[in-house]
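Please produce the structure of this protein holding adenosine-5'-diphosphate.
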Amino acid sequence: MTKTVEALLVMKFGGTSVGSPERIRMAADLIAKSAAARPVVVVLSAMSKVTDLLLDTLKSAEEGQQGAVEENLAALRSRHIEACDELLPAGAREAAYEGIDAIIAGFERVARGMLMLGERPPRSVDDAVTAGEKLSVLLCTALLRSRGVAAEAIHGTELIVTDEQFGDASPLLEATEERSRSRLFPLLESGHVAVVTGFNGATHNGVPTTLGRGGSDFSASILAAVLDAEELWIWTDVDGILSADPRVVSGTRILPEVTYNEAAELAYNGAKVLHPRTLAPLIEKQIPVWIKNSFRPQEPGTRIVSRIKDGHGVRAITSLAKVALISIEAASTSMSGAQLMARALTAAARAHVEVLLLTRSSFRQNFCMLVRSEDIDAVMESLRTELGLELAHGYVHPIDVDHSVGLLAAVGEGMKGTPGLAGKVFTALSEQKVNIIAIAQGSSELTIAIVVKQEALDDAVRALHQACRLGDERRTEALV
Ligand code: ADP
Ligand code: ASP
Ligand code: MG
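Below is the modeled complex.
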């Protein structure tokens, strides 16, 4: 299919940007303004904390806590009914109430099933949890219509085709392109704004899936790519990508521009502002992305592009606290360290677990793999299956797991070929008495990743941010 819609803008609003009636009103203002000038596809998250509430409800249901389930259902309903009352004119409310009740009833059916069976199958979780996005899309679409903007609510299940990895599905881009174009282009051509639920898709057979927590960013970038959008704007609650997490470092600086590679490394290494997989679909088509603050839309934000001129030194520091370090060591010289490592990586891949960092000591035949804490059970089960015989016969030492570590990363395209940079990073950490447990630097020299004790993680982020003078507006030449 070659047909396209010119100058298409995809806009994504995160949870805080649709977190209250006031915020939804602001989102609708921003949508209406853009839609007056060009075709617009909107991707929405659930209202802030709603996905947590839904997941918590399903967990309570599995555990048989009926009281908690009822309480959460009531909270879910009242939050959206109240928003509806505040946002919509009286004449539009009845239809919205019905829509809200139908979505909540769908969620409730699954929750009650779990309560009865004492089980929480991942496929049913995915089916139920997108109620949050359906509700925010319903409210926003109704508000736009009440203001005379032609808007149509669309479910991600109609557009994004994925594999069957429930809870963390991956898009199948060809099928997604075909479905998205045939569903959305006629709508856009007839002057409608499409308001799409983020976070969810469906398998080829139409079974609902989700794209991982924070996945609405990913939904938006998938749609921008398959629709050949001119731009993607991600509206959030900070002025753009900052030189570090503002919750950890005071005096961070907004980065006016970053490259796709830098943004991807930052996201992958913990910068919550973007879902780790957001940038991948956009790179080939070089679709520019803006990260903007829906609370302060007048601010320019951060532009993400292929290349930037002023690219020297470290650009940002990021960290990930919820990780675990797995150490594996051969106990016998008859065991090849390289083979052991290959099998461990295969085991991780089989469990669909991403290895964030890998380091190896060739002398002692041991190596470490860093994974997200949420993945540790799955990867350990897979490792025990893969290496079961060797562990039972003592050819491999018992696998050690350290949960008390954190990952720290310094990111910047301009680090490449900057001599002495690693030394400066390590000096800054040693001055803070931060003990380094493991280090990795890819050959792209885009990121130095360091594993430290979790209790020292925030201090380490602050020390590096300061040593690299990332908060200093007047920084003319990069220190590192
Ligand atoms: P949304 O709900 O809009 O998707 P998120 O909460 O997922 O928003 O992401 C935005 C948050 O990411 C910010 O409020 C900020 O606390 C956090 N964050 C972490 N690291 C960074 C960074 N380097 N730059 C900007 N924000 C960051
Ligand atoms: N609502 C989903 C979540 O909280 C997706 C998102 O916000 O991007 O994970
Ligand atoms: Mg997010």
